[in-house]
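Re: that backbone. Tokens:
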């Protein structure tokens, strides 16, 4: 199991953070991984923090920078299961306002309006001109 497991579900990238403590020691590696993911074309990313009991300000900074990059490209960053400590740090830093958080990966995926993988245009031509 890697520290930052990559899962693709319904066309969305999920990065599962398999760390009890996410700190400055891991932040640069995580930022590089997320930057590469964005370069590969992922613009909607879900971060699963279910294993994390502690996030430091540097790691949260990586999340904020990634959120800004995705937003600029029309994408979104969503969080799954930020623990009580993380929620309190998000409140203290004011970042709670920018992150959407969910209790499950499924709920985060469902929050997107149309799953990428299952998207099919629903266009019906009613005029003879187009047939």
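Recovered sequence:
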């Amino acid at each position: 199991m890697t520290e930052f497991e990559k899962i693709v579900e319904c066309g969305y990238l999920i990065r599962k953070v398999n760390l009890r403590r996410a700190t400055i020691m891991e932040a640069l590696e995580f930022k590089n991984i997320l930057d590469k993911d964005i370069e590969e074309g992922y613009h909607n990313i879900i971060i699963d923090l279910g294993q994390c009991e502690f996030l430091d300000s540097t790691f949260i900074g990586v999340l904020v920078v990634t959120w800004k990059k995705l937003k600029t490209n029309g994408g979104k960053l969503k969080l799954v299961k930020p623990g009580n400590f993380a929620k309190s740090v998000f409140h203290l830093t004011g970042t709670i306002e920018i992150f959407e958080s969910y209790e499950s990966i499924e709920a985060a995926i469902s929050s997107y309006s149309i799953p990428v993988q299952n998207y099919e245009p629903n266009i019906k031509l009613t005029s003879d001109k187009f047939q």
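The chain is about 35% helix and 20% strand. The longest strand covers residues 4-9.
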